[in-house]
Amino acid sequence: MKNIKQIILIAKPLYKVMYLITFLIFIGAIIQQVSPIVSKLIVDEIVSNINIGQNGNLNTLILLLAISFIVGLVDIALSSVSSRMGDHLSGELEKFLSEKFYKKVLTLPQQYFDGEISGKIVNQLSRGITSIKDFINTCTNFFFPIIFQSIFTVIVLAYYNLQVAFFIAILFPIYIALSYISTKKWGERETLKNQIQDTTRGRVQESILNIKVVKMFLNELNELNFLAKNLKNSNDIYAKQSKTFHIFDFLRNLSLNVVLLIVNVIVFYNAFKGSLTIGEMVLIIQLVTLARRPLFAMSFILTRFQQAESGSKEFFEILNLKGEEDLDQKVKVVKLENPILKFENLNFSYEESKSIITNLNFEIGNFEKVALVGHSGAGKSTIVNLIMKFYKPESGKVFLNNKDYNDITYQQVRGNISMVFQDSELFSTNVKDNVSYGKENATEQEIIKALKVANAYDFVMGFEKGLDTQIGERGIKLSGGQKQRIQIARAVLHNSPILILDEATSSLDSASELEVQLALENLMKGKLVIIIAHRFSTIQNVDKVIVINQGQVEDIGTPKDLSVKPGTYQTLLQYQIQGNKKLLKDFDIY
After folding, report:
1. Residue 553 and residue 355: Cα distance in Å, rounded?
2. CA distances from 429 to 420, 432, 459, 470, 474 (A)
3. Percentage of the chain with pLDDT > 90?
4. CA-CA distance, 577 to 494, in Å (whole number)?
5. What would the mean pLDDT of 265-294 be, rounded to a whole number?
6. What is the rounded CA–CA span in Å between residue 78 and residue 428?
7. Neighbour tally for 427: CB within 10 Å
8. Is a pLDDT exceeding 60 seen at residue 54?
9. In 3D, which of 170, 159, 166 has the Cα closest to residue 280?
10. Which of the two residues, 483 and 340, has the higher pLDDT score?
11. Are residues 219 and 284 in the same domain?
C-alpha cells in the first residue's frame, strides 16, 4: 500500500475540503439511521391503533410522517452538497496533480527524455491522475460513508437484537477478506497490463508522428498487427482478472446469502414469538438492508484501491525522480556583453555506455565564429548539450566568463544562448506564437522585425492569415527553408550574445540553404557563434575550427590551416571534394 500512502500525503493541500466532506458524510450517516427508527415508530403506532382498540394517536402519526419527510429532505440536501464538494475536490485534485507532474517533468534532466518515449510519459500522467482521482472520490463518496454507516447500523442493531448485530458484524470481515484477496490478484495483473498499454500507446504516437515513414515502407499492417497483438495480450490478462473476480464475487454473495438467511430466521422467529414488535421487525429489516449497501460497495472500493496502487506507480516514480532545475527560483538574466566559454578537463558519458567526452579542453570568446567538426558520433552534439547545461559533466568544469557552471543557474546560462536546431523544433500553433516563444510578451512590431532579419517576413505575409497562420504539427505545413527561418526569427527575438547553430542547413536544398544562410549572417552579427556542420561550405568563413575526434580535441585552427594539415578535418574535406569532383565529372562539367 506504498502508493496509497503517497496519494494520501500528496493530497495534503486539499485536506480542508476533504475534512468538510467527511464531516457532512458523518452527519448524513447518522441521519440515515434516523429514518428506519422513525419507520419503526410509525409501524408501532399503526399496530397499536389496530390491535388495541384504536388506541393510537393520529397527531403522533402525522408528526412522525413529517419527521420522516424532513429527515429525507435533509439526507438529500447533505448528499447533494457533499457530492458537489466531491466534484469540486475532483477538479482541484486533477489540476493540482497535473501541474505537479508537469512541473516535475519540466525539471528532469535531458538524459531522462533521451531514454523515454513521449507517448509513454503522457499515458502515465493520464493513468496516474485518473487512478488517484478515482481513489480520492471513492474515499469521499463511498469509503467514509460505508464506514460510518456500518458502525452506526451495527450499534443500532445491537440495541434491538444482539444476535442479528453479531451476524451482520462478522459478515463485514468475511466480505472484506474475500474482496481483498480478489483485488490483490487483480492488481498483480494490472501492473502487467499497464506496461503493455504504455508500450502500445507510445508506439501508436510514434507511428502517427512518423506516418510518412510508416506509409513509405508499407508498414501499415505491421503497425496494426503490433497494436492488435498487444491488445490481445492485454485482453488475455483482463480475462484472467475477470475470472478471478467473478469466482470471489460468487463466494462473497454466497456468504451474504447464508448470513442473511440466518438473520431472517432470527428476526422472523422472534417476531412470531412476540419477542420483537412488528415495528422492531421492520426496523431490523431496514437496517439489514442498509447494511447490505456498504457490503455491495466493498468490492468496488477495494478494486479502486488496487487500481490506485498500480495505476499511480509510474506517476509517483516520476514525481520521486530528482529534478535538476528549480522553476520557482526567480532569476533575473543578465545579458553578457562579451561572453567567453571554457571547457577544462571535462569528461562525460551516458549511463551504461563508454565515455563520450574525455579530457576536453578549449576556450572560445571575443565574438568568434567557431565550428565544431568531426565524424558522426565524435561528441559534437554532446558538447552543445553540455554548453546548454542540458547535461552535467562527470568531472571537469565548464566556465562562462570565468564562472563555474555549477555556480550559475540554468536560467542565466540559457538566457545568454540562442539556438537554431537541426530539426525544425516548432509547435503546432501559429507563426506569431512560434516566433514569440523566444521572448515573453513580445510585441507584434518586434515579431515582424525578427521575421525581416530572418528573411522570413515576405513568405509569412504571403499567407492568407499572415502571423496567425497555423503551421501544423512541427511546422508540417511549411517548407524546410521556411521552418528554419521561423527558428531563426525566434532566435533573433531571444537576442542572446551566444548563438549555437546545430546543423541548421543540413536538410535544405541549395536554394533554401542560400536563403537561410543570408538570414543566419544577419543573426550572427555581434555574437559568439558555435556551428556544428558537416557541409564545409557553411563554415568556410569561421574564425577557427575545433576538430573533435572520439570525444577529444584533436586540433584547433583556421579552415585554411587545417585543410593542409593531416588529420580528421583534412580527411573529411577530401571526402567532400572528391564527392563534388565525381558529381561534376558525371555531368561533364569538371
Report:
1. 14
2. 19, 8, 17, 5, 9
3. 2
4. 37
5. 80
6. 46
7. 12
8. no
9. 159
10. 340
11. yes
Q: What pLDDT sits at residue 512?
A: 63
Q: How many domains does the chain have?
A: 2
Q: What is the CATH number of the domain that holds 153?
A: 1.20.1560.10
| Boundary (domain end) residue, out of 285, 318, 351 | 318
Higher pLDDT among residues 402 and 139, named by residue: 402
**505 — pLDDT class (breaks 50, 70, 90):** low
Phi, psi of 346 (to 5 degrees): -90, 135
Task: Report strand pairing: 355-364 vs 528-532.
Answer: unpaired
- CATH code, 557: 3.40.50.300
Whether residues 207 and 348 fall in one domain: no
Separation CA 312–CA 320 (nearest Å): 12
Asked whether residue 216 carries a pLDDT value surpassing 80, the answer given is no
Quick one: 285 and 393 in the same domain? Answer: no
Q: 505 Cβ partners below 8 Å, 6+ apart?
A: 484, 512, 513, 516, 517, 520, 533, 535, 538
CB 369, CB 542: distance < 8 Å: yes
Where do the DSSP E strands lie in 248-382? 341-349, 355-364, 369-373
Q: Which of the four pLDDT bands, split at 50, 70 and 90, describes residue 342? A: very high
Reference 80, options 25, 150, 138, 26; nearest CA is 25
Query: Each residue of 108-164: pLDDT tens digit?
Result: 777 777 766 666 677 777 777 777 777 777 776 666 777 777 787 888 888 888 888
Confidence of residue 586 (pLDDT cuts 50, 70, 90): low
Residues 297 and 348 in one domain: no
CA pair distance 172, 293, nearest whole angstrom: 11
- Enter the pTM of the model: 0.65
> Which of 303, 318, 333 finishes a domain?
318
Calpha distance 383→197 (Å, rounded) = 36
In a domain, 402, yes or no: yes
Is 490 inside a domain boundary?
no
Residue 498 in domain:
no
Domain extent, residue 230, equals 2-318
Q: Is residue 461 assigned to a domain?
A: no
For the chain, the straight-line distance linking the first and the last C-alpha, in angstroms and rounded, comes to: 76
- Indicate whether 222 and 369 sit together in one domain: no
Running DSSP on this structure, what letter comes out for residue 430?
B
Quote the longest CA-to-CA distance of the chain: 128
Distances (CA, A) of 4 to 1, 96, 128, 131, 133: 5, 17, 12, 11, 12
Q: Do 128 and 255 lie in a common domain?
A: yes
Length of the chain in residues, anyone?
590
Would you say residue 214 has pLDDT above 70? yes
Dihedral pair phi/psi, residue 169, rounded to 5°: -65, -40
- Using 50, 70 and 90 to split pLDDT, how confident is the model at 50? low
284 and 234, same structural domain? yes
pLDDT at 522 over 70: yes
CA 562, chain centre distance (Å) = 49
Q: Name the β-bridge partners of 498.
A: 417, 528
Do 37 and 118 reside in the same domain of the chain? yes
